[in-house]
Amino acid sequence: MADEKLSRTPLYSEHVRLGAKLVPFAGWEMPIQYKGIAAEHAAVRERVGLFDVSHMGELRVTGPGALSAVNALITNDLSKAEDGQAVYTCCCNAQGTILDDLIVYRRSPTEVLVVCNASNRPKIAEHFRAALAGSAEFQDESDDTSLIAVQGPRALELLRLAGSSVDVSQLRSFRFADGTLAGAPVTIARTGYTGEDGVELFCPNSAAAGLFRALLEAGAPLGAEPIGLGARDTLRLEARLSLYGNEIDETTNPIEAGLGWVVKLTKPNGFLGRDAIAKAKADGPTRTIVGFEMVGRGIARHGYRLLSTSGDVIGLCTSGGPSPTLGKSIGLGYLPVAMAAVDTSFLVDCRGKSIEAKVVKTPFYKRKPAAGAA
Length: 374
Fold this sequence. Notes:
Elements: H1 12-17, E1 21-25, E2 28-33, H2 37-46, E3 49-52, E4 57-62, H3 66-71, E5 85-92, E6 98-108, E7 111-116, H4 121-132, E8 137-140, E9 145-151, H5 155-161, E10 176-181, E11 184-189, E12 198-204, H6 205-219, E13 225-227, H7 229-238, H8 274-283, E14 287-294, E15 305-307, E16 313-323, E17 328-336, E18 345-350, E19 353-360
């Protein structure tokens, strides 16, 4: 909407300075691209890229009951994590469908940080606030926190050049530590959403612009580039990472969404939605998420219908587009379980034209392990 009031991150002026094309996204004015999606995608796969993800939500839970209270709202088991470790998880309703996918950071048994998607921040903040009342202290720190992702095979090298006080090569996957970087106070987490190695940096809003500029300057010899949301989407699609509103939402449960691995049905004291998910697992899903590539000439897009070879509607494409790395058109979508085997052929309704596709193994792209990776 033309008159929609959009929020801006503390890096907005940096995006303008760098010539970004800005677009509305989840209520924010965000960079979709700088030099172009394909070039930015290649920069992350081959070198290192910087992303502004300050629109994400950061929710802090503290107090003696913090750990158990958060654990009762997520499918994964935070009690099995160590202090300084994060877990990827789903947050479900009582019906066992997905309110959001989260990364939950365990600082200690009395302090937990929850990072949620920007579009779901109001919903998740209220969900946690209501559920935690009386058992733990809750604070939404989203408006005071900036988040910068540094992703790519030279990401750790960039952090060393920028003067990280943390030896990130010793920080295993999904671990985090506090320190300084380019003189700014940061929490460095070995996490990301691109399929590449790298980190996500939490910092105060006041430090964000200076840190972003310092990283680009230090990374210039490495070919570091600012990266927009367009390449973020193509990168995560190649890595077969779910996007809320596409692969997962309140109509999907973790079992059919291929996220059963983050559901710990036997963890002590259970969690919200456990019984419904246990039933869904016992009954077996009727549909499941698959990866596919186009055989015929055509590009699958979100919302396109998936058809049997006889033309019957059998599913829906949740994400799709050209893969810059692989040079082919790929997609994700829900198909009946009976049609989910690799090499199964079906059709994609591409604006009225039925184009052949086939189920393939995912992830579409998988990086080679780097030194220091867990």
